[in-house]
Design brief:
Two copies of one chain form a homodimer.
Chain A lengths: L8 H24 L6 H8 L13 H23 L7 H18 L1 H8 L10 H20 L5 H21 L10 H11 L12
Chain A binds a DNA duplex through loops.
Chain lengths: ~200, ~200
DNA sequence: GTCTATACTGTGATAGAC
DNA sequence: GTCTATCACAGTATAGAC
């Protein structure tokens, strides 16, 4: 009698093709904009005919959905990687968290548009793809709670300030530094508001 | 010899048709989303065939452009109408200005998306249509300057806070009140930051 | 001048051959 | 699983009736 293979080579191959398609989709989105993504452009990039994509994704929105889930999952990993190295001093830590999210978003507007705005007309993420974004939000809440910022409203205002900076940068000064230059000041405003103690360690010589 | 008519009835009629088309375009945008606006849907609503729209607008983007200019011009008038009635006390005045913009935006997401976000792929407003938006921005700057908030960075942070509230409301809690409820608190945070004096007059009995 | 009729290109999506 | 063929409908543009 034949044994059961421990690896499903077909499923692995299938998953690899899906990942290849998603990678191509991100390339197209970054190059031409999230909303300009077409099945033809993705198919061309992976060397397929457009209808062949339907063997791997049920629809164009299913591709968006997978991108949404993958985008948040990747950012979640990124957070787990850089958070341990951040300074412990509350204001410096807030600045670093905000700066990271801001830079990450501005460096990849397609990522921010798909994951944090509503630029794709009929697209609503499925519960499965939405899960990693909730995990990121919980992570942020935990970070703020560790600094003594516990109430939900204060967390929401944090989202407003950081998100507002990114939105303003992308909408009003794409490619510039106008709102990036305001980040530290905005974080100070927030830190004062939630009553964080003034910085204890000096940073300038 | 014939006299020259003081009214150009043809031009008036033409302008009326343009206004009718724009009104229909706004209806469609509000109903189905800014990006879902199609020439067919607009033509259907005004009782025309799609190609007839080209007699009044050079392209679909020209319609977006006219909507952009009209949207800001209308809001500018709205500002001139309500600003005189606002309280003079700085913090109350800031709250009122923020609340007005927030409510106006949330009540008409299509307006906010077209005028303050970048939801329409290839659309860039022309200089002419952009002018009224600059006028609104100058008006806001003047309002803040009258309260002693003069430096440009502080104005930018005002835009970040108010815009961030609207963005978060539309993206994270469409139809809800989650960020609307944080508006007064966010404005207080900003007022504290720019050093506005505490409110002098009591409002509660 | 204004509108209708029509054709052209490109898009998402489906059916069926292999 | 991938392909060819095809559909319905979007935006664009031209020709011609009135």
């Amino acid at each position: 009698m034949l044994g059961t293979p421990t690896r499903d080579r077909i499923a692995e191959r299938r998953e690899a093709v899906r990942a290849e398609i998603l990678s191509a989709a991100w390339d197209v989105a970054r190059e031409h904009g999230v909303a300009q993504l077409t099945l033809r452009s993705v198919a061309d990039r992976v060397g397929m005919r457009p209808p062949s994509l339907y063997s791997h994704f049920d629809s164009k929105n299913a591709i968006y959905d997978a991108m949404f889930g993958q985008g948040w999952a990747t950012y979640l990993e990124e957070c787990h990687r850089y958070l341990p190295g951040l300074p412990a001093e509350p204001r410096a830590r807030l600045r670093a968290i905000a700066r990271h999210f801001f830079d990450y978003s501005v460096a990849d507007p397609a990522w921010y548009q798909l994951l944090n705005q509503r630029v794709v007309p009929g697209f609503e993420p499925t519960a499965e793809s939405y899960a990693p974004s909730v995990a990121v939000m919980e992570l942020f809440k935990g970070q703020l709670a560790a600094l003594g910022i516990a109430d939900d409203a204060a967390v929401d205002i944090w989202v407003v300030v950081v998100g507002g900076l990114v939105d303003a940068q992308l909408a009003n000064d794409p490619g510039g530094e106008r709102y990036a230059a305001l980040l530290d000041r905005a974080v100070e405003m927030y830190a004062d508001h939630v009553g964080l103690p003034p910085a204890t360690t000096r940073e300038d010589p």
